[in-house]
Design a protein that fits this description.
The protein is mainly α and 471 residues long. It folds into three domains: 122 residues, no CATH class; 92 residues, no CATH class; 222 residues, no CATH class. The chain is built from 22 helices and three strands. It has a three-stranded antiparallel beta sheet with strand order 1-2-3. A hairpin with a 2-residue loop joins β1 and β2. α2 runs antiparallel to α3 and α13 runs parallel beside α20.
Length: 471
Amino acid sequence: MNSATIWILVPIFVGGVFFVLQRFEKALVLAGTGLVVLLALMAWFLPIGEALPFLPSITIQDTLFVLGRQFILSDTDRPYLFLIYLMVAIWLGGSAAARSGKYLVPVGLIVSGLLTAALAVEPTLYAALLIEMAALVSIPVLAPPGRPASRGVLRFITFQTLGMPFILLSGWLLPGVVSDPPSQPVMTAIVLLLLGFALLMAIFPFHSWLISLAGEVNPYSAAFIFFLILSTVSIFGVDFINRLEWLRGFAPLYSILRLLGILMIFTGGLWAAFQRHLGRMLGYAMLVIVGSSLLASSLGAPVADLGANASAIASPATGLFFAFFLPNGLALATWALSLSIFRNQTENLTYRSVQGLAYTLPVASAGLLAAHFSLASLPLLAGFPLYSAMFSSLSHSAPSAVFLAMLGVGGLLAGALRTLAVLITSPNESPAWSMTETRLQAILIVAAIILLFVMGLFPQLYLPLLSELIP
């Protein structure tokens, strides 16, 4: 038995089979969600490279050879696998309620396998090719067959394709460097690396595709593909830096990441404050998520600040960077699900079209606002403890940067308050309350809201567990 077979080949193969069985949409949602939950549990419980506790005769090997290339998923990679497939399970579980189409489950499985392969492949420069393949496979979700591809989809593919050669070049140059980081070839390689990741992760000024995508296609599909690619690319980037000892200790790199993170949070929040289209506002919230990921990866703040029983984590690769994945992913999925429900009942997602929808879609409105407020770091919700710890850590070294980042988060909060005012302002003088969400939609959104509050009120329940997972 091989780890790459379990967490790479199996989801890709099952996703391919599901493409043939598209007419059984509800069954595929259940089967696909069950599969990724099983893969997440296997990543949690099954050791790699050691005999299984309950079957001593079986050992999961960590290396698979394909066409002369190695795919290595060792025991230290299990936390990454657990986080990735846990998040995929959350998104696939809500796909039926979001009515995101019959392609999301098979495409989600295939993309998950390809992105996991990008984390596992050796040499690492081939990861760029696998990320590009994942972007191409995701097209049926973003532009279903029979419909023309929107401008956002074309931009998405263009920027993902443009990012590939920069990652390939930097991956070819950097591993051969062992000393003298300030030299010209090294600086060229670092610039290529940053440029490649900027194109892949919609970092300013290459963010236009993300905003267009969020405003033109199904919000749930767009947010799922974006978050999955963002999570994998960011993990790949941190892992790539950690593999090169001199690059890991190259202080200017962390300063650049910090600057980019603050820029993304500030610009995303500022634009969200003046946005009048809920889909595009979701896109700007994604920019804030990208910024928080970049900023957290540059800090290495202790998670002990987040709860009385939480353990301190000092490494940039194992601190707030990973702590943001679960609350941000849950909030984004809840927001996207609520927007998809809106989109099924309104002509578009402009403020004029959604005015007063809180009276007919109260659960979806509550889910949208709870997720929005969580990403805007409102106290009592899941995002607040993490942003509080991140700003506290940043305040010791760059107080002015904290001010800019807080302005960005404040802009996102202002956008949430404007959305609240629009949703509860009905064009009718005496609006009638009714609940038009399906039972499944209501159950999923209420469960997500409860989880967002629990994670915000009791961060010590899950953060110590996360600190034990990450190596």
